[in-house]
Each structure stands twice: as C-alpha cells, then as structure tokens.
Amino acid sequence: MSDPAHPESQDLADQVDRAVQAAELADMDAGLGPFDRAVNKIVEVLGVAVLATILSLVFLNALGRYTGSFILIWGDEIVISLLPWLGMLGMFLSVRRRQIIRIDFFVEKLPAAPRVAINFMASILAAATFVYLAMASFDLMKFFGNDRTIYLQIRKGWFMSALVIGPILAALAYLLMAWEQVRRRTGR
To answer: What distance in Å separates the CA atoms of residue 156 and residue 84, rounded to the nearest whole number?
Structure first.
C-alpha cells in the first residue's frame, strides 16, 4: 500500500520487491562446476518426482473421496512413507547451496581469520551432528526397518533409510565445505 505522504516508502518497497524477485529467480548453482551442478540437478529432479508423487496421490484420494466415493488406501501409505525422502532431499540440497538456516550477522562482522575459523568449526560441528543423527536413525531402522507397511507390505526400512542416507550426505556436504574453506585459506 503506497503512502502519498511518504513516496520514499513506496520506492523502498519497490526495491525490496525487485530484490526478492531477483533472488527467487536467480540461478542457485551459478559459479559451480559441472559435477556440482549435475549433483544438484539430480537431487532437484528426485525431489520434484517425490513431491509430484505425493501431490498426485493426495489429489487423487481427495478427488475420489468427494466425487466417486473411493480412495486409494495404499496411497496414504505411500505419501507418509515418502515424506522423509522429500525432507532429506530438500535438506541436502539446501546444505549444498548454503541456504540452510544459520545466523551470520555477528560472524560477518569479524576479521577474516576468526571468521574463517568459526565457519570451519561450524561446518565440522554440523557434520558431526548429522553423523550422530545418521547413527541414531540407523539404530531406529535396525529396530523397525523389517516391519512392513499395512497395505503394500513394503519393508519400512526402504523409507526409513532416508533418515540415514540424508544426514550422511548432509555431513559429507558440510565436510566438503570445511575442506573448501581450508583449501581457500591455504591457497591450494
């Protein structure tokens, strides 16, 4: 809403709108090498496929429920089972693109040497946290992974493996970040 008494507020709002639009439409993988771009594209395609499957099944069940009095009862089973994969694919991609939520305000105010050290330690700590999560999830998967889904009789371990694979990949992405920080710092 523009305020005629304060035209500068409209200018600022327009600048913010343009900046947000530019950020949303920017190539998230700009500046990456072919291998990194390919990995990100594969993860994107897998994420879109999982999301499309989930949305299709939910839509078909809603349509069937309200128009034909039928449901794909096994569809709900697939939707619930695919949600961990959707979350882990998104998490892995956000780590690789350095879009994971973090607070940089104070770190960015520091001189280069402490900033690099803090970022390095943060990457190592994040990797260790994800390794711990993968280990805990693996224990959970060992305990419940042989259980089967009710309707399709698929082992739950197939779906629960997302809780192991996702954190391992995220830990590797953080370790790669730490390695890149050291490499940039040493000039190698």
So the answer is: 12
- How far apart, in whole angstroms, are the C-alpha atoms of residue 116 and residue 118? 6
Give pLDDT tens digits for 88-143. 999 999 999 888 877 778 888 889 888 888 989 999 999 999 999 999 999 999 99
Q: Is the dihedral of CA 59, 85, 83, 24 positive or negative?
A: negative
| Residue type, position 178, single letter | A
Spell 84-112 as b/e; 16+ CB within 10 A means b.
bbbebbbbbbebbeeeeeeeeeeeeeeee
Predicted TM-score (pTM) of the model is: 0.80
* 3-class state of residue 31 by DSSP: coil
Burial-class residue 154 by CB neighbours within 10 Å (0-12, 13-18, 19+): middle
pLDDT over threshold 70, residue 7: no
User: How many Å apart are CA 188 and CA 180, to the nearest integer?
Assistant: 9
